[in-house]
Protein 1
Amino acid sequence: MGLSIGARPYPFLMHPSRTAFLVIDMQRDFLEPGGFGAALGNDIGQLRTAIMPIKLMLDACRATNMMVIHTREGHRPDLSDLSAAKHARGRFATRIGDAGPMGRILVRGAAGHEIIPELAAQPGEPVIDKPGKGAFYATDLEAILRGRGITQLIIAGVTTEVCVHTTLREANDRGFECLVLEDGTASYFPEFHRAALDMACAQDGIFGWVAPASAVIAALREGTES
């Protein structure tokens, strides 16, 4: 029997043993001063609103032994997995691979590429390094999920309309049932955040469900106590 979570567009029936909490790109380069996000002129405070809901969700998942997976967007030091189109996008003065206050921007091994300390992965939690926006592209995420018998994903992270939504769509096409945390996701642009959440559950759940972290946490606790 699953756990019923109050969600849009209708309750989500979660089976914790077949569910993974997927935390997308909560990296220093996106969420801290001096990182890539700030260098592009964005208000990193908008993204930091997702930290506490994700932290509480991580605590609940770890307490109930639900699978947790983290992702990081970034590239090899030689940038051999960085397409010319992605590198050139936007014509910004600061680009991927350039030197920044936390090392080379979005390059694996640099301090800015790491997950923020508040949400750091614990031993045994897979960390997926991805060169693209979606977590399934050019990674072994699907193999890990299939190997663990995972059929449902609770998705959080940044940004809602880019890496979270791309991953949601990839997962939907692969047959995973997905719930997006409305307060555990964030965007530099609040209007994009709201629209992306609405799109996720439009047309009676075209890509999945949307719910606050508190609803999922409450269901997990109730399931543990029952």
Protein 2
Amino acid sequence: MRILGELEPKPVFSYFEELCAIPHGSADTKRISDYCVNFAKEHGLSCRQDQYNNVIIFKPGTTGYENVKPVILQGHLDMVCEKEKDCDIDFAKDGLALGIKDGYVYAKGTTLGGDDGIAIAYALAILDSKDIPHPPIEAVFTVDEEIGMLGAVALDCNCLQSDRMLNIDSEEEGYLLVSCAGGVTATCHIPVQFKKENTRRNISESILMLSVTGLEGGHSGTEIDKGHANANQVLGRVLYAVSKKVSFCIVDIRGGLKDNAIPREAHAVISCREEDIDIISEILKEYNDILKNEYRISDKNIRLVSEKAGEVETYADNQVFDDITTNRVITALVNLPCGIVKMSRDIEGLVQTSLNLGILTTDKKEDGETEVQFSYSVRSSVKSEKEELVDRLQCLMNVLGGSVTCTGEYPAWEYKEASRLRELMVETYLEQYGEKPVIQAIHAGVECGLFAGKIQELDCVSFGPNIKDIHTPKERLDIESVGRVWKYLLRILEKMNMDSNSGNVKEM
């Protein structure tokens, strides 16, 4: 049964609902990519799909726009898959359970994927239309944006003819994004050495799980300045507090799911003496009060809990970290930088440099060895500061016997002084809303920087409807905002008419 069938604009919400029915988490985009390819075939449109699942669909200009230079409509196909603890949806198999409340579309118990499903829905609705005036369209749908913009990195842009692009990947109506930070995913690795056999046989031990829960989370770029607690970092602080009072060793440690999402939960399984359990409980009680006071505004539901994680006999000696590894992991969590590093002196309120410890895991490598991994999203609008942050991670790893690997690096998107597209969009916004939009630079990475590096003299603006609490199960899409931005987008396309002889934009 259709949930969004009566919402306006109907073509947009119809396609959005179809997209939500297809599992499309990052690194799982084949099905949604094939859906877009089949859409193109059914509508008689030329289409390209590469080996990474990126899709480009071409549509000729409508009557009167046949000879106008094309425009790129761009968004990404993947979504961040986060869910509430009691939600039983399997993101690899199930579609989203959509709902409508208080003027918003949401997904029950999970993220919605409005970032960036609404961009794809807008584009498909335009490609499907027969009465919307527009120039030739090159609709570019990339993959794995949420895990390092890997699709945009790999995309071959040689088939694209346009030097202007509408990126529909922003989440705040009334803001035109024209610049962003560059970034890289930096992963720290600490090798795990286990306790040797028969070292624990004469000790009465317990296996406890210590958990940090109830945090708000959020996008590590756009919401890094909100002061939300990072569950992985808090876990390290608590483990260090415990280590000052009692002796224990880590058995397993993990937290967070995406390097570009501020983690909401983190867990450590530890092996400790039975007689120390009460001491640990008192420490957690003390830190519960401390943390609730420190984060009473940003994370009011923050909570520390402990529970028995099984009998000690179920864990072999070679499953318990030795004392040195345990100390190294805690030292890394306490001392590795995290959060805002520097604010911009040029743009008031803009974060210039930051990093987010988004994923903490204990994993076996291909060679069978175990390591603890700390995966960071590092961002900066200044290349040298981004590089310096990676050096800081590497410096500490050198001392702790670890290493750092970097993937998914992307460039900053620099502000374009002269932009005809920006002028057109400001004029159109003023026409529709009666006021000028906010011209904005943000700390979050967007694919525009990669496209600007591949397409010479690219004129690009990013915009979109209101989407609240992205990358969290509270994510919701503003229905009326979707309609206003749809009207705005269509008017921009309509006004892109050019002199077919000169190929120059008409004066505005």
Protein 3
Amino acid sequence: MLPWIIILRPLNLLQAMLAVVLTTAFLGEMDQMQILIMLILSVVTINAGGNIINDIYDLEIDRINRPDRPLPSGALTVGQARIYLIVLFTAGLVFSGLISLGTFIIAGPISIPTLIAYSACFKRTPLVGNLTVSFMLGLAFIYVGAAFENIQPTLVMAALAFGFTLIREIVKDLEDMDGDARDEARTLPLVWGEIKTLNFVIILMVFFVFIDLLPYALGIYNQVYLWIVLLGINFPLLLFAFILWKQPIKKNYSRVQLFLKLDIFVGLAALYFGQTF
């Protein structure tokens, strides 16, 4: 795959696109095709720019953790990457402005500065970086709600996305400890220690399997949501929590981190098919 595409992290962008489409469908606005297209384009370009700036700031870490990435491998230069992200951020702002003032405000004064601040400093601050990434993913749902002037139904979706992403981000920090230590990053495992961080993320996993049942208990989502969550999210989440507790090694951190990334698709399916009409 071309380095110009790899640096954008296509899987992450696909998740963002699906989140936009499913949220739009959830709000019953699929007939608003022009707005939907602008939403997809703005979310993809802004997220892509954020992924590039993250790779720029993580260059030294990635030389150790992910040497095959476009920048550490030399497939792209830092100068090329900077021009690329400026073009993408600019395009994202234009697309957001074509939707509404509300989406432009979320994209401009909030999202892009937050993405830059995350890569520049928040990422290396214990827990703050994890919370920032989680906030940004949750904000994507609210962004769609703002486009259709109907934010309230997206708040539950944003909250669930926030919690699930927070777990994944902390597991990712456990996976990346070696490279982060050489770059003197202050991630949670390097400040708290591996065992304390591991115990914390296992507690979050257990806590989440109760929290994600609340929308069903409150009647916001139906039994389809319940079964998808139980079988597709909660059971695997508890299984991986047990695996991490028994064998806290890098290989297992990598497996759990990948599972959490892919399982977001299951969560999106639960939100869409489990809505109460």
Protein 4
Amino acid sequence: MNLHQLLQLMIEVMLPISILVGAGALWPVYYKEVSGKTLRIQLNRLVLNLFFPAILFAIAATTPITPELLSVPLLVGIGSLLSGVLLYLLLYRSPLGRGMHNGTRAALMVSGMFGNTFYVGVPVLTFLYGPDASRYAAFNDMLMTMPLVWSLGVWICTRLGPPESASLHPPIWRLMLGIAPIWAFIAGALLHMSGIVFEPLIHAARMIGQATIPVMMFVLGLSIPWRDLKPRVAILGVTAVKIVLMPVAVAAVASLLYVHNTEPQHAAVIEAGMPTMMSALILSDRFHLDTEAAALLIGWTTVLYWFSLPVTVWLMH
């Protein structure tokens, strides 16, 4: 990728996302009728129960499932597990985590393992590989991120977090039953496999789902504690694992598993380097972890991602 294409990436992808994130950051300053936290929670609910399920249904209903496509969640999943092992060693078995509360350790570990692979991933991947590349982000989110977050991620929160979190461990099946995007994705996949084409419904779902990414980028701006973004060794260490070491690990695994790395494997490397998922705040709130640490990691990985992304894309292309 040459300098001109990198400049296009900055203008066409990074600029609009930055504007939306900036708008979310400034909104509570000028509009104080509703608190930023309340607004964040309500917009999250709107996206997770309407916009996000709609776009996932549309993608799943029009996407053939192939081994190449499935290599994306496979590789990113391996990268998440490898990062989890490294983060455990850093936070629980090294001087980096010495004296740190278990609620902070668990929050940072979960936040460092899982990225914002759909909301940030879709605009980046579609710029690089065309409109159909949204399937990589969707299948990665549904087949890797959500299942691992709500199984292994919950286990980390309740078993490696503070003692009071252990009593909050809910049955995994109950958690999965309440996640609307998963059911929308399954419905879309079943519709595609049935051979039935109901274009008006798919078109309606696609149109509704177009609000997903702009709204969530606005919510991202609401979620970052901008005034507290001061350099901290532990936060920056986990940030380096998330946006630098994890994509490197996925690239290495892809080279071992695949003779020739093609577009899906490249997409997996890009996905692996995404900034921290915003669900880290939901997990931290729900299981009484350190929400401030999770929010700081979201902030630092998001800010530094705009520097790591051009380097990653340039090295791969």
